[in-house]
Here is the input.
Amino acid sequence: MESLFINLSQAFTAWLMSLGLSAGWADALLLAVQWTCIVAIVTLNITILIWLERRVSSFFQERLGPNRVGPLGCFQTVADALKLLTKEDIVPSAADKLIFKTAPALFIIVAVMLYAVIPMGDGMQVVDLNVGLFYFISIGSLSTICLFMAGWGSNNKWSLMGALRAVAQMITYEIPLAFSLLGIVMITGSLRLSEIVEAQSGVWFIILQPVAFLVYFIAATAELNRGPFDMPEAEQELTGGAYTEYTGMRWALFFLAEYTNLVAVSALMSTVFLGGWQGPWLPSWIWIIIKTYLVMMVFFWVKWTFPRIRMDQLMSFSWKFLIPVSLGNILFTGAGIYFCKWMGWC
Amino acid sequence: MLQTDQYIINVGPQHPSTHGGLHIEAIMDGEVVKDLIVHLGYVHRSVEKIAESKTYQQFVPYAARLDYLATNLPVLGYCQAVEKLLDIEVPERAQYIRIIMAELSRIASHQIAISAGAIDLGATTGLMYGMRDRERIMDIFEMTGGQRLLSAYIRIGGVAQDIPEGFIPAVQSLVADVPAMVEEYNGLLTGNEILAARLKGVGILSAEEAIAYGVTGPNLRASGIAYDLRKADPYGIYDRFDFDIPTGSNGDSWDRWVVRIREIEESAKIIAQALQDMPEGEVKGKVPRLLKAEKDREVYHHIESSKGELGYYIVGDGSDKPYRLHIRAPSFINLMVLPSICREGTFQDIITNIATLDPILGESDR
Here is the structure.
């Protein structure tokens, strides 16, 4: 069980080689298969996740939630997706059509790209980049550009306000997000995610870096545009913000991409702070799934409990609180490492 | 300093957070509100004109549709106004039933104000908690008049029929649960740091300004003025009950929010006392089948509705229909302060202020 997927991919490569392909071609084909698997798993996972969030939120709110289509309503998302596919695709006549149409597609592409570096198990990583963490943060911030494209291209004041909020929020929260991870990079001395996981074989970084974990969690919620930081969307104020003009499957793509981002960020959080795929008894890839889902549950919990924060409060919270705290954490970590070296503990 | 152009953004009449067909033209500079124009009339149904072609009894259900979230209150006000006009006596038992129904409506209305306010602030779970508790009140209304939302149970001269079996235990258990409900709202919403940050210091309405505009109800009391018609000019039998008038001090959204939550508790107190003192007896006074007011006889009657001072001005013309019926709608007057409290705030504060002013468009547009 442990190395099921690794054995599978090795068998696949061996089979390709036996057909007379060179090692390079076999690797390229394997990569293509891996990407297809990621897209398929992400999409499937999201149908489960949307159903799960709707059920979980309904339990928070003392409702029943979707429970009619299939056992416990688990096919509700499929029914909804089919409905969205059959809906009319409206492009406003005043919209900048190229930007309007490409924005949702780019959003989901960017979201799927995040999965390239996440170790989904022992040795299960599409590419083990030596700058994995850096890659993740930089690709993650690209999604804001797609949101801005959507808001600008819609040619609607609500959308534009949502888009501007998204950009302001990204600039503000990207900094504490990156700073909070610096402490871990200082401890491990590497940006490679597999090495960060290896470094947690003894003790998880949530214990060594609790402040960084909290800062990262808050900043990630803001990056994901989830409540209480769902300013760019804000149905009650901006009537959907950047997504106001989108209908049918284009709108669904945004929805899909948001959940894809959510899974990716939760997976990274488990990788960086919760020991990644490490854990006793169960295979490594099951551990990362369990941890990712637990982190996502916390995201759900926060979203369905808190009211939305105000834009100026959101900015001042980051600039006046999160950034100083994360800088302090870096200083403290540096001092700690220096102290350890001086005492000869590490 | 970067100079930017002002732009106009139209909030409503189709917008999730305008509590009905309210249209606001916001003149914005970035996220800052420079000015605000309130456009009303999207729910105008000429209720006052309709009254002139309906007999006094026929207008009762129309009154229920004024404030559809606190349906018994406008009906109570109208019936009492007609009773004043025609000198109709109301039996004791009916008086107590009316008080119970009116205060239940007030609780339901404030629950909507809080839960709709919560969802306007993005706290979707808060909506469900308020709605869940309001559902019990709706069930009690269903017991009495058959209708849940737009009950016309209160009639001219009393109530439609005596309360059914099971009514008193249902109300008693509701009243007993009110402290637990309030604690839950406070735990989930009022105690939340983000909610406090969103409400405190937002939309400050000074006492002077509130009086100048004629603001009444919880919005006036939040500005620190303990003016409640139930105490200031007791109508019905309100002088027999012991309750407090919750007031705020700053007149900001936070005070308006807290005052409403505390009023739920006070209303529960009144209901508990009314249940205890309620006598047996008739529930409908001697009302002639044809109600005719003398020519040129006029009457003004006002009650403390959940939104503020709800007044009815009726002029008789010797027939069974009023010559003129004017409604002093508190929501209409309360909404007039919206531009002044929103100016120089952010866009999000407009939504907060509408939520905490708690207007009802059925009443303000009539």
Notes: The radius of gyration of chain B is 21 Å.
